[in-house]
Amino acid sequence: MAAVEPLDRTQQLASFERLVSGCTRCALAKGRTQVVFGSGNPEAELLFVGEAPGFHEDQQGFPFVGQAGKLLDKLLAGIGLTRADVYVANVLKCRPPGNRDPQPEEIEACESHLFRQIELIQPRLVATLGNFATKLLSGKPAGITRVHGQEQWTTLGGNRVLLYPLYHPAAALYTPRMLEVLEEDFARIPTLLGGEDAPKPVLEIVPPPAPAAQLGLF
Ligand code: URA
């Protein structure tokens, strides 16, 4: 896959955002205030992928602006980063009613938006927040409790990326032990981002993409 030049990248991401803002691929389009495309630095080396917009995100049009977002900001600050250094997106771009779990048909309808974002941004590290993003991007059914903190090389959007599953900040808000683990996993991000001892790609077997139902995404 040819590298996308930074100027092109910003422009292409902006024009892709305009396209996605009118998306009607699934029923969530009817209930949304607006599409929550994603936000941050289009040239970021680190991309976070959450689950879906909640009430505040739907109102404001940006991902992670509620309580979970405040925790994400704190965790970023703890490793010397801000939102301006990273890009944040979600598996679903529209809010599910009552913040229910994403449904398989919604994920299937929406996933190509995320894959195109990854193709344009070309991050080196993709941190998945919670089960839905982790299962979708790893292509494996293993849950977040089992795989958090375990980086793995994979190919996303035509590029080699290090996939790094993390607990979802919303889950850690009220569970102190989970918050500790999330902080520990976050502390490894600078190393994974290419410090001296960043893990080198190893030979990997690429599994065929599994349908959402097989990944246990509902
Ligand atoms: N939780 C998510 O997964 N994404 C958001 O944007 C907000 C909360």
Question: What do these coordinates show?
Answer:
The chain is an alpha/beta fold. The protein contains ten helices and six strands, in the order ααββααβαβααββααα. The chain has helices at 6-20, 28-31, 55-60, 67-78, 104-121, 131-138, 144-147, 169-172, 176-187, 189-192, and strands spanning 39-40, 46-50, 87-90, 125-129, 152-156, 159-166. A six-stranded mixed beta sheet has the order 1-3-2-4-6-5. Helix 1 runs antiparallel to helix 5 (104-121). The structure holds uracil. Uracil binds next to loops.
Short description:
The chain is α/β, with parallel strands linked by helices and 218 residues long. It has 10 helices and 6 strands. The protein binds uracil (URA).
Cα gyration radius (Å)? 16 Å
- Count of discrete alpha- or pi-helical segments spanning 4 or more residues: 10
| Overall helicity | 25-40%
Number of strands: 6
Which regions contain 5 or more consecutive residues with pLDDT less than 50? Answer: 205-209
Overall form: globular
The CATH architecture term is 3-Layer(aba) Sandwich
**CATH homologous superfamily title:** Uracil-DNA glycosylase-like domain
**CA(first)-CA(last) distance:** 32 Å
What is CATH's topology name?
Uracil-DNA Glycosylase, subunit E
